Amino acid sequence: MKLGLIAGETAAEIVESVRALIDHGILAPGDALPPIRSLAEELGINRNTVVAAYRLLSRTGTVETRGRGGTRVATRSSVPLEGYAPDSVLRDVANGNPDPALIPDLSPALATLAGRPVLYGEPTIDPSLEEWALAWMSRDLGPRPDLRLTVTGGAVDALERLFADALSRGDLVGLEDPCFLSALRTVRVGGYRPHPIPVDGDGMTVDGLRAALEAGVRAIVCTPRAHNPTGASLTEERAAALREVLVTHPHVLVIEDDHFSMLSRRPYVSIIGPEHRRWALIRSVSKFLGPDLCLALTASDAETADRLGQRLSPGSTWVSHLLQRLVVALVGDAAVMAGVERAAEHYRARNAAFAEYALAAGLPCRPGDGLSVWLPLPAPARAVTEQLMRRGWLARPGDEFLLADDATTRHLRLTVHDLDDADARQLASDIAAAVHAVLRTA
């Protein structure tokens, strides 16, 4: 960047000057700011004044520091979203959705919800939901005298509010790599910096967690089971090793996103030790009761619950009690819960069946747990997805789940639970053919 554009004698004046240049389009995302020493000499001020100005701009997300790449106007990188691709004529195995046929019918429960209206100032959590949810959470978490419950408008809403209370812009957040798209999007939109923690077949790795803590992360998000996209679940041995690493970092906020909860075929194990000071376990109802029921239950320590409650106060002060009562009616209905159990078994069986077809086609696959399958490939994933489009399939490359924008992987994330045997076999065959075509032209 040419000198002479930025003006000011104090850090605040320099900050306002840079913001004005951005507002007027003189500075664009990605443009470099002058080196600290050069700008200080140009303005005739102390170098520390420029350092303070750049630090303020970084904390507000206006600029980002790229090491040897210098300080540049921040760019907002986009993150792919889950869901169906609009206007596609291809068979969509990329969407990550539950099967609509397996989502409970809400009609009978809706007819029971009439009652007195809820007014301002009343308890934010419906008593019946609180009683059920505390029993559900406590059964898995064990005795925790400080356990408190908060209801939010979904898991992402809980994540966003937890981050907003615990973090400042520019803070490091430890995320699994590959990562759940919504968690990565929430971190980036909030102006925080994601720090990758590798995932293997047993979940978050011990060395990865240790490195993240040494790097100074202030929060960690862990998926204890049915990790999206890999399907990995923590073993008790791995969870114990992770808890041991966290013992010396009791004030780092540890968030567990148990998104698959009732649909999981794996037991819940936790990395939150009994003495950890700041923690939260989030369980959304969207996977087993339907994505349109935007409600999540967050169990946490008392201080985190108080802070989370304060974060709810300025906006939506509570989640609709009608929605809360609907959840209670559904989870208390034996027929609905039997349907949830059938759905869980269906997802497990269809993922396992596809893994067998993939193996028969020469593509070894571990089905894991969750709504999708993480399929290793002997060729670059994006090139394979391009070949699959020619065969009528829309698939999702694993690259989209990696934290680095330019990272690549040799995996596909496939949602296959709505394919019958013939279609699943055909998909596996077409992937093998696509891989062969890519390798032949490489």
From TrEMBL:
Family annotation (Gene3D superfamilies): Aspartate Aminotransferase, domain 1, Type I PLP-dependent aspartate aminotransferase-like (Major domain), Winged helix-like DNA-binding domain superfamily/Winged helix DNA-binding domain
Q: Which residues form the HTH gntR-type domain?
A: 8-76
| Entry-linked Pfam families | Aminotran_1_2, GntR
Which controlled-vocabulary keywords does the entry list? DNA-binding, Pyridoxal phosphate, Transcription, Transcription regulation
MF terms in GO: DNA binding; DNA-binding transcription factor activity; pyridoxal phosphate binding
> What's the family?
In the C-terminal section; belongs to the class-I pyridoxal-phosphate-dependent aminotransferase family.
Tell me the PANTHER family matching this sequence: HTH-TYPE TRANSCRIPTIONAL REGULATORY PROTEIN GABR (PTHR46577:SF1)
Name listed for the protein in its UniProt record: Transcriptional regulator PtsJ
